[in-house]
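Record type: ASSEMBLY
Status: queued
Input:
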Amino acid sequence: MSEEKPFFIGWESKPAPVISAFTKKATLGLLVASLVVAGLVTAMQGAVSSGRFEFGNVKDFSGVLIKSPAPMLVSDQEIDGEKIFYLVAPLKNGFSAELAEKHHLQQVSLKGTLIGNDMESMIEVQEDTIVSKGVANATPLEESSGTPVTIRGEIVDSKCHLGVMNPGRFKPHRACAIQCLSGGIPPILVAQTAEGILANYLIVGLDGKAIHEEVIEFAAEPVEVSGTLKTIGDRLVLYINPETIKRF
Amino acid sequence: MSVAYQAVGWNAFKKRHDLVLVAAILAFIAIFVGVGLAIQPTFTVEILLMRAFAVAAITLLHIILAIGPLARLNDRWLPLLYNRRHLGVAMFLLAFIHSALAILTYHVGSALNPIVSIFTSDAGARMSAFPFQTFGFGALMILFVMAATSHDFWLANLTAPVWKTLHMLVYVAYIMLVIHVAFGVLQSETSPVYASLMGLGILGIMGLHLRTGWGQVGLETEAPICEDDDDFVDVCALADLEENLPFGASVGGERVAVIRYEGNKVSCISGVCQHQNGPLAEGQFKHGCLTCPWHGYQYKPHDGTSPEPFTEKIPTFNLKIVDGRVLVKNKPNPAGTPVEPAICPC
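Status: finished
Output:
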């Protein structure tokens, strides 16, 4: 009778020692290789922004509400070095145009959650918390004269990009950007300066009115946008004709 | 082996296997999220988790696809093949959690139905609008069907050939997932490490399958018809038969296993296990039965039936020994038909 060849039968209580030893080594090898993959893949991910979303931390804010170029609150006091805050609604919804119109240039108080990165901030306003305290004794934000520009970048929704999602850009985020823009969240063009710094440009129509649906098809794609650049307060605002947006 | 319905036929090996599997998955997710947050603390945890589950799923899928050919190339890998279905179900669950997180993060919260959003947010032939999510969704559906039918209940009711064909769809799912990754996250994560890892994975799986296929060529070529009796085919020389180790051949288009056992008995039964179409010719004679290398299903060589209380049975073949040659009848007997073993003069 020939020497018995080791043979594995799963339901037997104990496999042959030689099979058991190989299985342990193979399992250990696969485990180590898998964990190396986990470490390597996560370590090599592209840099995300410093944006933050203070989810669950509802704060009181007060200041002057401005309806355009996008709904904003000019706060009475600086919060983390910021005085101007875009306003949006919960989930993938923009701030109500009706409310913005109703409270334009009024002194208001509201409750909301702070969103923001190194450059800009935003408040996710809690429903039905806006209280008007009368017409503000304030002048609109200072506006610079326009400069014609052509800028290459990516159109995203401002809410995710400023901190709700890190990363809140590029192809995997495209579906979300489309939903957010459809919901009325202001679009911004994210472009890299020659120094490698990201700059955010709020995009509005040539007449200064909000545009959303018009830019959806270009969301999360590399585009070239031409228009007139103005500074309103500390925000860069790009007045464009959406029909001139080009993919590159 | 099947007697009555059981949710899982647990045994000591399966319990150890699944404990290691769960620990490995938890360690994988913990390392992915932990290292990710340590390097970039502002990373959104949901997105990091979404990616961790995706990478864990596709890593496990590569392991699952590699085990089959590895076990054909070296039978020491068979213990990992034994419980591969549990790996498959675990992989589906990882992919499902990834997709649930992706839907919650990217698609929930607007007026549009989240499932509709998956199919409508990307559309176009441009790389930047290629519908990668549709491919991911399609792959998930295939993996769901496979996971849902992975139990022996479905194997028995669908029959092994249908079940096997259904589960070969894993290769379609794999291709769809490669497209999902290549046109999805690899469009934003541009480190060459990702493309290299994905490329290595694809080449590894292809290479192992090609190598295994090449090794099988000629192993089961059709045995020649016997000159004196055209009902029989000449399978091998008696000297080719090692005791307790079956010899594989193809007879009348059917895979068969010829086995010399208990010293001088020689029998021939189907080479296809009734359970999952496993290669019985790569098994061994153990505990009085020819034992399948994949899951230990057993068949008595003289009648092709499983030992009681099990009920599986496979076709038998008439066999005779003439001038030191093993001749097998070219038509199988009905499954479970007893055939008197030939006695070899060795």
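Annotation: Chain A has two domains: 52-135, 147-247.
Annotation: Chain A touches chain B through 62 residues (CB under 8 Å).
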